[in-house]
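To illustrate the input format used throughout this study, we show a single complete record. The first block contains the structure-token representation of the backbone; no residue identities are included at this stage. The design step must infer an amino acid for every position from geometry alone.
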């Protein structure tokens, strides 16, 4: 990790704007807490990827929050390409004061250089491919740019460093690991799936009770524990062991899988400060 950070620091010297790529479903836990210190005042756009998998109403709440703290941000879906145009416009807008100044000094046609930073699996490579486009050749030897770095020409005035900076999430908080497990961003060999599933039931019960009721046909407004609700889900799905007890392992596996694939619904696991899932109108469609 120290080596990765050193490389990022070196690359930062070459660029104008950092694209901090986050997961729309967990904008807090997918953020590396050291990133702001690392980029040391460099201009930054927060790009919330996989917005197609997140709760649209909560996307709006996050957007309002970022606006309130003057943080440039864009929600995107790099598979469909939603938000990519807005991202390029936001990059230009953020650089406008600097470019205007360069212009006055007679420095024309300066290209804006960007770099993507993000945790594993957040979609860095997919974004590079999407905004680079198929036909985009690596521009390589651009005057004034270190040869060792490959640049992708995104538009006439925007260049993107082709190697993103990989940062790690902050695993020392157990909740962060759980949320990464819920969105499917960490291998299921490094956490206890049944425990993660029970905690997921607990979260859904308080934040998205209707989704649980609709998909799994369980009553959640009762005194039952989260484990008991999970049992009910297993029974309804007929996940029963030979011994006649609920098959927790299978129930957990299916629940986690269906959440990941948004079969249960589009869910956002984290809200900005002061917001509360319970007060958001969850009427879908
Ligand atoms: N639904 C959805 N899936 C996405 C989106 N962007 C990326 N993905 C998927 O997320 C997974 C990870 O994407 P990558 O681009 O490989 O992520 P990465 O950040 O490069 O990951 P590392 O190279 O491991 O650091 C892939 O399966 C992508 O298809 C998106 O906007 N929506
Ligand atoms: Mg990658």
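Output of the design step:
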């Amino acid at each position: 990790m120290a080596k990765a950070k050193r490389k990022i620091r070196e690359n930062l010297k070459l660029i104008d704007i950092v694209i901090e790529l986050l997961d729309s479903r967990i904008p807090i836990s997918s953020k590396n807490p050291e990133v702001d210190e690392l980029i040391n005042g460099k201009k930054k756009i927060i790009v919330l990827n996989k917005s197609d998998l997140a709760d649209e109403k909560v996307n709006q709440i996050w957007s309002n929050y970022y606006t309130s703290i003057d943080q440039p941000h864009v929600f995107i879906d790099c598979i469909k390409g939603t938000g990519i145009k807005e991202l390029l416009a936001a990059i230009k807008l953020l650089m406008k004061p600097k470019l205007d100044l360069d212009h006055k000094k007679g420095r024309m046609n300066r290209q804006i250089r960007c770099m993507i930073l993000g945790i594993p699996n957040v979609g860095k490579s997919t974004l590079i491919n999407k905004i680079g486009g198929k036909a985009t050749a690596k521009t390589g030897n651009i005057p004034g740019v270190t040869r060792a770095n490959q640049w992708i020409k995104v538009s006439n005035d925007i260049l993107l460093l082709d190697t993103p900076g990989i940062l790690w999430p902050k695993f020392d908080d157990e909740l962060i690991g759980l949320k990464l497990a819920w969105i499917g961003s960490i291998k299921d060999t490094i956490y206890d799936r049944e425990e993660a599933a029970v905690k997921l039931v607990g979260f859904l019960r308080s934040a998205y009770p209707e989704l649980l009721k609709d998909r799994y046909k369980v009553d959640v407004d009762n005194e039952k524990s989260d484990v008991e609700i999970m049992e009910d889900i297993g029974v309804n799905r007929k996940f029963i062991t030979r011994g006649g007890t609920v098959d927790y392992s299978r129930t957990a596996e299916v629940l986690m899988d269906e959440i990941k694939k948004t079969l249960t619904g589009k869910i956002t696991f984290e809200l900005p400060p002061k917001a509360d899932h319970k007060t958001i109108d969850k009427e879908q469609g």
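Structural context for interpreting the output: Residues 124-125 surround magnesium ion (ligand 2) (CB under 6 Å). Residues 174-272 form a domain with the Conserved Hypothetical Protein Ylqf; Chain: A; domain 2 fold (CATH 1.10.1580.10).
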